[in-house]
Design a protein that fits this description.
The complex is a heterodimer. Chain A is of the alpha+beta class. Chain A is 26% helix and 43% strand. In chain B, helix 3 runs antiparallel to helix 4. Chain B starts with a helix and ends with a strand. Classes of the chains: A alpha+beta, B alpha+beta. Chains A and B meet through helix 1, helix 2 and helix 3 of A and helix 1, helix 2, strand 3 and strand 4 of B.
Chain lengths: 289, 143
């Protein structure tokens, strides 16, 4: 009887010791893992710096994107000014600031590749092949298209406000048998040239809506939809008004009929960051949808 | 009979001893799971990063620079958790040695043993002009 009690006691002690050892092992393991995680700040910092620079770039370029990837379609909203408030060549000044002062403050090497944003046109790329160009200079235009392909836009909502008075307008021709739905809301300081229109356009041809702001066709605002330079179902808004104080505020909503498992978007520019043995090399303005 | 009593007593004492060992061990590990120095330090860094990010993205830093007035930043700092102390300095791109704006959270003593400092660039646009600044956010735990 006494021997059985000793056996039970020994068993209880052994069981308790085993449990204690296990608790000790896993507790110390969790502590080590947590410390490993927290010691990765230098890795997290490169993402924080890249995010900081993305915010700055977006502020200088002034374009606002909002992209929502749905089950069967993707909605892209773009808000823009033609011409932009800020001369896009200011990116060069910003690049110098980042390369010199900001990198020194971060105690890191930071190099930006902004060559393709400062050549007169900024390019914003989508992983499904869509591309959004902003051409700046004597003629300002924005162009959303898929190079050499059909963009698969099925619905287009275009809102434009110009702070000047047009003298005439030339409308495009709606085609009920077409394949792209367009809502157009245009407003300038000549109320008789206001347009609020919903209809269908044939995307196989170039459809143009033109507002003239001076005689001779030199000053005009143009909206093109359809086949633009061989890019099907593309949209282009062109501001070619010589008075530099004339600004067109553009808001564009595009529904693209595509089922995408993922979508990334970014400016055609790069950032290289290095601090010690940690480095990052990625596109600027990178977003995952 | 006497022997059995001793055995029962010893058994009870042993059980009590085991329970005490378990209680003390659990107590030790529960206490050691509180923030250690490394975690405290990381929280400080994250705090300074968060404050800088929010100040830039909600426009308070730009507003302060444009108005040459730190009240919008101070208002935000006062809304932070009580234990957080933050000092924000903004430097012009032309002179990274002397701050053009500086604000410390009211009632925070600057005698902490550990600080976390992060830098963030601020782009301020006004009409067609653009200016560049560096915002330094220094954070520490209130003592």
């Amino acid at each position: 009887m006494n021997q059985r009690g000793v056996v039970f006691s020994m068993a209880a002690i052994l069981l308790s010791l085993t449990l204690l050892l296990l608790v000790t092992y896993y507790s110390s393991k969790i502590t080590l893992d947590t410390q490993d995680l927290y010691n990765q700040f230098s890795i997290r910092k490169m993402g924080i710096v890249a995010d900081d620079l993305d915010v700055d770039l977006n502020k200088i370029l002034g374009t606002q994107f909002d992209v929502n990837r749905g089950t069967n379609s993707t909605t892209i909203r773009i808000t823009e000014k033609l011409p932009a408030d800020i001369n896009k060549l200011k990116i060069l000044d910003w690049n110098r600031f980042v390369d010199q002062n900001y990198a020194r403050q971060q105690n890191a090497t930071i190099q930006l590749d902004v060559g393709k944003l400062t050549d007169g046109k900024t390019e914003y790329l989508f992983s499904n092949g869509l591309q959004y160009d902003y051409n700046y200079g004597s003629v300002n235009y924005v162009h959303l298209y898929k190079a050499g392909l059909n963009s698969n836009m099925m619905r287009l909502d275009i809102n434009v406000t110009v702070n000047a008075a047009s003298i005439s307008k030339t409308a495009w021709t709606l085609n009920p048998a077409g394949d792209i739905n367009v809502n157009l809301n245009y407003l300038d300081q000549n109320a008789s040239n206001t347009v609020n229109q919903s209809g269908v356009l044939d995307s196989s041809i170039l459809n143009s809506y033109v507002w003239d702001f001076g005689p001779g066709g030199s000053d005009r605002f143009t909206i093109q939809v359809g086949n633009i330079d061989g890019n099907l179902k593309a949209v282009k808004l062109i501001e070619s008004i010589t008075n530099s104080s004339t600004v067109a505020t553009v808001s564009l909503r595009v529904d693209v009929n595509e089922s995408l498992s993922s979508l990334t978007r970014y400016y055609d520019a790069g950032i290289f960051y290095q601090q010690g043995d940690v480095n990052l090399n990625r596109r600027m303005g990178l977003q995952y949808e | 009979m006497t022997n059995r009593g001793i055995i029962h007593s010893m058994d009870a004492l042993l059980s009590l001893l085991i329970v005490l060992v378990v209680v003390f061990t659990v107590n030790y590990y529960v206490n050691s799971s509180a923030l250690n120095d490394s975690q405290q330090s990381d929280w400080l860094k994250q705090m300074s990063v968060d404050v800088g990010t929010v100040l830039e993205k909600n426009g308070r830093a730009s507003t302060a620079i444009q108005n040459n007035n730190v009240s919008v930043i101070r208002t935000y700092l006062n809304q932070l958790p009580h234990a957080w102390c933050v000092d924000v300095s903004i430097f012009s791109n032309n002179d990274l040695n002397s701050a053009i704006l500086a604000v410390v959270r009211p009632s925070c003593k600057t005698d902490a043993s550990e600080y976390a400092v992060t830098n963030r660039s601020i782009v301020v646009t006004s009409g067609s002009s653009v200016s560049f600044y560096v915002m330094k956010v220094k954070a520490w735990w209130r003592t």
